[in-house]
Sequence to fold (257 residues):
Amino acid sequence: MHIGAHVRDDDPLAAVAEREADVVQFFLSDPQGWKAPKPHPHGEAIKDAPVDVFIHAPYLINVASLNNKIRIPSRKNVTQHATGAAAIGAKGLIVHGGHVREGEDVEQGLANWRKLFEREAEKGGFAVPILIENTAGGENAMTRELDVIARLWDQVGEFGAGFCLDTCHAYAAGWDLGEAVARVKAITGRIDLVHLNNSRDEFGSARDRHANVVGGDGTIDPEVLVGVAAEAGAPVVVETPGDGQAGDIAYLREKLV
Fold:
C-alpha cells in the first residue's frame, strides 16, 4: 500500500524524502486564488520520481454553484489544474464537491457537475482523472451526505469520475467510519484515494479540523483509521500537521504494509 502526505508545494520531493513517503499531494497554485498554475520548477524531477503524485485543486472552486461568477471560473480552473497535474505525471486532481446557497435547488448544483464533465468530454476529456472529495459541513453541499453523493454519481459516474474519501470530513458529517468504505463503493464503485485524517472535533461536528493520525489531539481511534485504509485499498495521503506526518506514515506503514 502506498502511503504519503500533503506537503508544501515548493519542493515536494524533499518533503517526500523527509517523510519516507510513497505518495505526495500538493497545490500547483495559491489554494485561495483563481490563478492558473505555472510550470512547476521541479516538474521533470517530480514526473520521473518513483512516487505517486496527486494534485489538490484550489479551495475556491465550486463547480456546483448557481452563481455564474463562481461556477464559470471554477470550471476553467478545474481544466487548468488538470492540465498542470498531467504535466508532472499526477494520477489525479482532487476537487471538493461544492455547494449551492440556502434556498437554491441542490439538483441544479448536481446538474452543474454533469455539465462540467459533458463540456470536457466534448473536448476529449480531462488530462487526469477528477477525484471528487466528500466534505464535512454545509446543508446544501454536494458531497456531505451519502444520499446526495448517490444523486451526484447518477450525473457524473458515466464520465469516469473518481472519488477521494476524507475520513475527518466523513466523521464530521456523521458517517460511521466502520461502514464508510462499503457505502461509498456501493454508490461510486470505487475509491481512488484516501485522505486519512484524524479530527480535532467530535463526531458529527460538521467542523473540518484535521489532527495527526497518532500522537496528537485526534478524537478518532487510530485503529479505526487503519481499518478504513485497509478496506479502501487505495493510496493514502495524510493531510495532518506537518511535524507529525512522518510519525503518521510510519505508524500506518507498520499497520498496513
The chain has one domain: 3-256. The chain is about 40% helix and 15% strand. The two ends are 6 Å apart (CA to CA).
